[in-house]
Structures
1.
Amino acid sequence: VQEPEEKKIALELLETEQAYVNRLHLLDQVFYTELMKEARTGKTVPEEVVKMIFSNISSIYQFHAEFFLPELQKRMEDWNRNPRIGDVIQKLAPFLKMYGEYVKNFDKAVELITAWSEKSPPFQELIADIQKRKVCANLTLQHHMLEPVQRIPRYELLLKDYVRKLPPQSPDRGDAEKALEMIFMVAKHSNAAIAEMERLQNLWVVYQRLGLEDDIVDPSNELIKEGPIQKISTRNNSTSEKYLFLFNNMLLYCVPKVIQVGAEFQVHLRMDVEGMKVRELKDTEFPHTFLVSGKQRTLELQAR
């Protein structure tokens, strides 16, 4: 008898989950545990660094090994009597938010592995030693660490396929569709976490270019636009090169530094966006000019 399509997909979910739990076991119980032991006794690498590399892998491992995999196994053993997995996946979905932290940390983790392998030969040797074991299948630590990053998209694909193949009258239809929607939301959640991390990273780079003035560094700020601008001096009819950074709450009017050590710009003026007005000027001598007036003062500027 040909197995129904949806059962094949459910079995594939179970098989890949089993393999995935083995991979998580390797990451948490072998790499993380042994590197941690080395950090505590050998002092070749700070414990903090090892913790930063593995982020919240222990929680992810325990969740899959102690909850999701056993639940899935029970279901598949009982499939003929009760052909459904949608409700189990609904229980799984909210916990997948844990991945946000791991995914967000992934690039930094890989950088730390590279940096500390150069700094600490014993650290590198221990990793190499574990990688030689049969369980690693000739793959690097970095390669194994990529697996959790790819797991949620994999659930999404398998479940989409499962829902597509379900007969219309299947008892699992309602639950499976709801589960798919939940997984889809979580996948979006982890993409949002990555986007937020990139935003903060870019913001930090901008703050460094500005010389990290206390009152400017604020993680909630959003950079909207930046670029060079000419300042018009009406007194002697000349222009000079300046640079603007527009944030959601302030406009920074800056002077590029000649000697580029440390910051690239010096902030000359900070204008609050609140109450700020911009007016175009019809100046024949200086085209593309406009006035920016705020609580602090008024600037006459020329764009390219």
2.
Amino acid sequence: RGVSREPGALWTEPGCRSCTCQEGRVLCDTVNCSIPCSHPLPAPAGGCCPTCTGCLHEGVARAEGDVFSPSDGNCSVCVCLAGNVSCLSPECPPGSCPSPSPSDCCSCHPAKCTFRGRTYAHGARFSLDGDGCTTCICQGGEVECSFAPCPILDCPQHQWHLRPGQCCSSCRDTPAPTGCFLDDNGVEFPVGQLWSPGDPCELCICQADGSVSCRRTECLETCPHPIRIPGQCCPDCSAGCTYMGRVFSNNETFPSDLDPCLSCICLVR
């Protein structure tokens, strides 16, 4: 690079490459950084390796010997020493205490609650009178009770019903429909009844919930001259042949209406 180097010289090239001059040749390799700490700071400007003269904790640079509290607010105290962060939690007095907490970091609660002649441990949950409708909890030497929440019913209030042993009301069971009532013609069909509403290709059924389900029949014509029978959905290819408005049975012969010298035969294929 236009610069003369003495034999054995050692220098750093841009891109954190370490180079040396040996026997007239320049040998370069990537700088290998040894980091003897757990929370190193990023490399300073122009440097390649992180530094341990401080600590990087939760994205915040801390100076050597700095004492601080972590961001989670759990009352721990941390210190930066030789690039390592050490945190200590406060020691709280064991057991119960009758007075409020002496500090914001130590929670001090009575161990038990006495309620209606019975003793409950701190944090215990129990049901009032054993009915399951009221939930109580022992918290800080006091018993707090609350009613079990009831769901919002989607039926009118006159249909609400409180069953024996239940805490919340429920909707009365509505009787199952016995059939399907059609408003257009006033006809009621029983559940499971099949009928055609006027179109022979449409078939309806009365379902168990009182609704009507209809479906159309798709016909497949498999012969060139199908016969349509009144009241029947699909044309019939096995009944015979239609010719000039007349129906002839299979294998039946008849004179042609166009030429009396011609004789025709009905062949179902």
3.
Amino acid sequence: QELRPKSLDIKQEELGDMVEKEMASTSEAIEDAVRRIEEMMSQARNESSGVKLEVNERILNSCTDLMKAIRLLVLTSTNLQKEIVESGRGAATTQEFYAKNSRWTEGLISASKAVGWGATQLVESADRVVLHTGKYEELIVCSHEIAASTAQLVAASKVKAEKSSRNLLRLQECSRNVNEMAANVVASTKSGQEQIEEKDTMDFSGMSLIKLKKEEMETQVKVLELEKRLEGERVRLGELRKQHYALAGTYDTTEEGEAKPAPAPRRGILKKPPLAQKP
């Protein structure tokens, strides 16, 4: 009973409706994601300025481009799915076709859910980054997840599609476009993170005279600590090298304490090997 496929517990009508509902739900999730990004864009322009505004706009623009690419991908996938059903069902109904190919149908539903979930997670991560309550790494991970779920959706569609199908070629082009846009999100996120971190560490414009003096003293302490640690590591490195040369047999201490290679053995000391005796 546990090994029975889960699709056997679902009626034919329910399985067919699940595919259509899931594709529609994915499209709605992407449309909602685009609207939320536009709202975040206007909010960022009102609440931030300078470098932070530039970084937020760059990241949100790349996220918008990615959402548009995903929307086109889902639309093309829906058209290809209809083509597959029409060409493969024969005299059967759409629900019967989905039930007959239940494993493929479940893979299609799973891939569609993964794409919609990835889009939603990307928007939530972008929202937290703009509000400075999230991590830039979350956006990078979400971009990788979207690329993976896109590959899953293309693979699920490619199983039943004709090799010469135009919709399949369009879907593969959309998949490559999604991967390119996801890479742009990763690139803009990394460059923005570096830009923000550099600004945060070097921006002293809002500090008072007392605060500046305190920061200066703390920085001097850190410099002295690092110099002392560096000197200690140099001494440690020198001792490690001496021990290394000694164990390798190439270390010889002179009167000045300098190291030089050990002298090579004289040739005269080497003896010739004895000649082999005749039997």
4.
Amino acid sequence: AQGHERLLKVRSLVETPRPSLGSDTEDEPEGGPGSPGALRRGLRSTSYRRAVVSGVDLDGSSNCKKKNRMSQPILKAVVEDKEKFSSLGRIKKMLKGQGTFDGEENAVLYQNYKEKALDIDSDEESEPREQKSDDRVVFHHKPLRSTWSQLSVVKKNGLSEAISQEERKRQEAIFEVISSEHSYLLSLEILIRMFKNSRELSLTMTKTESHHLFSNITDVYEASKKFFEELEARHQNNIFIDDISDIVTRHAGSTFDPYVKYCTNEVYQQRTLQRLLATNASFKEALSRIESHEDCRNLPMISFLILPMQRVTRLPLLMDTICQKTAKDSAKYENCKQALKEVSKVL
């Protein structure tokens, strides 16, 4: 009854001209298209939107569809179009040969990235449920990025089912470090190319102000690139990753030094940005134009500037998750504890 009442309410808002069906209505099965039973059947085979808006037989003639199409909204999925962003093409060339992260589902900026491994104990299904799609309503149930269990090679070989649930969670946590580093690297590339290297923006401020804003972000980027390339090489060598603790320990002890300098500069960075926005109209206008560029995906520059602080904070959490999923009486556990200790030192 509630579904029928909701149907009538929505129809009153999106009412469309309804063609006369003539004798076709007499041949309808029990319960017209407006009945609750028909609505339930419609929900099983088509989208709710189509069942509500059309007001005609769901399998009606093409003429009926054409008449209603002008008044019916055509829903399109809002997704990040990989081909729109030239930065994705640049980063793919730079990381040539690393096919795991070439797909559109992995072109997620770090600002929009959520580490699933930090909630790895949830009982949610890792596989999205398949649903039938309508010819005018586009459904995208595929996650924005791949997890370890959803990799095609893992599915093909049945690796996820062949190991224990605890080991599967450990593999997810290890893969999370690699995939999140890729997303982070992509965002850093946009920060450098669109903001730091922008001649339009640099002309609105002094070299000192520019240094305060961007500091040694290029060195941070190079450190991330080296870290990711070694992680990805380990992943390409074997889809079932035995351990990455040695890589994390080595890079945290030396490669991550630029993070300390960059994060120390944060106070000057924040003060400089606030002053420029408050007193420099040319800077503010140029910044606004850059932020509205499709490569930046309407994200503010500050969301890119704070990424190294976010990354250096999340890495210990990810390594701690791996430790929790590693057998306490194994050598891998001791290695993981050492890696956690090293990244915590950086933090």
